[in-house]
Specification:
One of its GO terms (molecular function) is hydrolase activity. Strand 1, helix 1 and strand 2 form a beta-alpha-beta unit. It is globular, with a radius of gyration of 18 Å. Helix 1 crosses helix 12 and helix 3 (about 55-60) runs antiparallel to helix 12. The chain contains 12 helices and 8 strands. It has a single domain, classed as Cytosolic phospholipase A2 catalytic domain (3-Layer(aba) Sandwich), CATH 3.40.1090. By secondary structure, it is α/β, with parallel strands linked by helices. Strands 1, 2, 3, 4, 5, 6, 7 and 8 form an 8-stranded mixed sheet that branches. The two termini are about 15 Å apart. The mean pLDDT is about 95.
């Protein structure tokens, strides 16, 4: 039996996920493989490096730094979340990734990106931390209109959530028969069509398949929610979701708001801890 972990994105809603996985790590819960999308990848990589509280630590430390996230950064660099600062300066110099632990961890860690030419998902297994590997994380979290297209591995990519927001089917295709799925919207959430279609059409006029994927994302997302519910009913998935809409947007500069969302994640994880252990057969 192989066990997987599926981490949805959602920008700063990902701090809910950070709280959940910190509780898991504190209680020695491990997985054979994990897949992260956008913030799920950027924050979830700390599972593979074994760094409890790192995600909430650097987010609260730098949330008011214009290099980290600001309109100023968007104007100067093309990225609302500063690409060089967030994915290289912070992990290399200011709040270091534990590279040795990450590289030696037996858990496979996949990130999801969207190929802007095909509009399809690309799944990349992150092995050894280096500049290019961090660029895959950046690509996975590069939101349309708020980030530059990222070129790495011979691809041109944006946010993985465009093509595969909650990649449970992918984890199952990798042989994970049971999966814990952490989502960042409440269970009754229904995604609506994306706005700003005129801006999308203008900016990405050369990429019709990308525009189509963005326009149809709500259909893909709601279909994935339906699949996840069926997997849960069949006993193949254990879903952890916030009890209600999280009190945070895509961008947040108040560390107290960040901490509140993180603490909600910790609370929900603790409430579900014994059930998760039973699902993963850790008590047998």
């Amino acid at each position: 039996m192989k066990y997987g972990l599926v981490l949805e994105g959602g920008a700063m809603r990902g701090l809910f996920t950070a709280g959940v996985i910190d509780v898991f790590m504190e209680n020695g819960i491990t997985f054979d493989a994990a897949v992260g999308v956008s913030a799920g990848a950027a924050f979830g990589c700390n599972y593979k490096s074994g760094q409890i509280r790192r995600a909430i630590r650097y987010n609260t430390r730098f949330c008011k730094d214009k290099r980290y996230c600001s309109v100023n950064s968007l104007i100067k660099t093309g990225d609302m979340f500063g690409g060089e600062f967030c994915y290289h300066t912070v992990p290399d110099k200011l709040d270091l990734v534990d590279v040795e632990t990450f590289n030696n961890s037996p858990m496979d860690f996949w990130v999801v990106c969207t190929d802007i030419t095909t509009g399809k998902a690309i799944y990349h297994k992150c092995g050894h931390i280096c500049y290019d590997e961090m660029e895959w994380f950046r690509a996975s979290a590069s939101m349309p209109l708020a980030a530059r297209i990222v070129e790495v591995g011979g691809y041109r990519m944006l946010d993985g959530g465009i093509a595969d927001s909650i990649p449970l089917k992918f984890m199952e295709s990798r042989g994970c028969e049971k999966n814990v799925v952490i989502v960042t919207q409440p269970r009754d959430y229904v995604k609506k069509p994306a706005g700003a279609q005129k801006l999308i059409k203008l900016k990405y006029h050369k990429y019709p398949e990308l525009r189509k994927a963005i326009a149809n994302r709500h259909k893909m997302y709601n279909g994935e929610l339906k699949y996840i519910r069926s997997a849960e009913e069949a006993g193949r998935a254990f879903v952890i979701a916030p009890p209600e809409a999280l009190p945070i947007g895509h961008i947040e500069h108040d560390p107290e708001v960040m901490l509140e969302v993180y603490r909600i994640g910790r609370r929900i994880a603790n409430e579900n801890l014994e059930a998760v252990k039973e699902f993963l057969e850790l008590n047998s």
